[in-house]
């Protein structure tokens, strides 16, 4: 196959490839450091990467790609039990880490190799198959222990090139983000994406609106974030002219990993004149759809299928949704070269994830507009509510609730109901905890915007919603605590 990162050998040698705070590496510097590491780990099988938000993590993963070794990025905040499971399941031959980083006891006597970001070596020829494993990324494990999705080299190349097409992404782009580097969003899109194009990435280390404003006003052209980050941006914009200026001048603002509430879309657009675009992907599929840079940035949608991605909506009996009307809910199934090859050591789970004709069952439910735009309404397991004979997606109710001035955060679930089958439950974080909006008021608010059968029948008030590292609401925790 052709090189995953051609800019390391054919690109702008003196251009800054990576910047983390005050530390940076040019393409020549990255080629030297990653090349030296590749020589040391060639033939190592799988290697764990202690994925702290530092320069060394990017060097480690780049070196593994050059060596043809599968990298297993690890969340530095993992609990002991989860970390022990991942290490046992993936069986890495060693762990790559930044010098001076303290590793948990779960690593035992596993060999450690400190990553030297100043080392100098040659870039080896990439003589690997498209189907060779590039990464093993562990899923969040909401239905059991995390599973390792084996992502082949072809999937990285395919998804990044499809995004380059959709976003008009070039070597002149400078990306800024503060995403963690153990997930697809921050690592594949946020680090490998710029490197494949020959562009630059500036990692904030830790997300802050001040950092976003500084970098966008200093030449950065793109911002990647998750909804919690964009919510903080929307809250900060009214009193921060530098942030307004930075976002207004950005070429592309992209949100992913969860749905961005329409209310935040509109607040950002009103303040800056720029619309955030959304895309849709998973660990197992990388990226499936996106709003295009030259398309309509339609709030609440994730755009159209990317080049090379097949996408369909299916009914519960497995038949394809007959026509796309913007109302009929179905499960998203996808196929294409962007998909993972297997769950590591889990042939049963791998087989169950695919249909007989090769479509991957995402577990996400959506509607599709006549022009092809996809609007995700939630997860099949937690966000598809069957109430009074209707199939209702939680996402649109959450958006409606967030438009109420007394609602700061909202989540919607279903719970058993003898009459309706399931009743709609709204979990609300009020703007004023001392005077939350009444349940009847919220029900009427939703009914007026959507339809009477979509109004919440129960309202529960919380101080905060449980979220994971990527800002996704953990609805199973809500239901368990009910």
TrEMBL record:
- Any GO molecular function: medium-chain fatty acid-CoA ligase activity
Could you tell me which residue ranges the AMP-dependent synthetase/ligase domain spans?
12-344
Query: Which organism does this sequence originate in?
Result: Streptomyces griseochromogenes
Question: Which GO biological process annotations does it have?
Answer: fatty acid metabolic process
Output the PANTHER family linked to this UniProt entry.
Answer: ACYL-COA SYNTHETASE, ACYL-COA SYNTHETASE FAMILY MEMBER 3
Name of the molecule in the record? Acyl-CoA synthetase
Instruction: State the Pfam families in the record.
Output: AMP-binding, AMP-binding_C
Do the record's keywords include Ligase? Answer: yes
Cytoplasm is among the record's keywords: no
E.C. number: 6.2.1.-
What family does this chain come from, according to its entry? Belongs to the ATP-dependent AMP-binding enzyme family.
Indicate the enzyme's highest-level EC class: ligase
Keyword annotations for this protein? Ligase
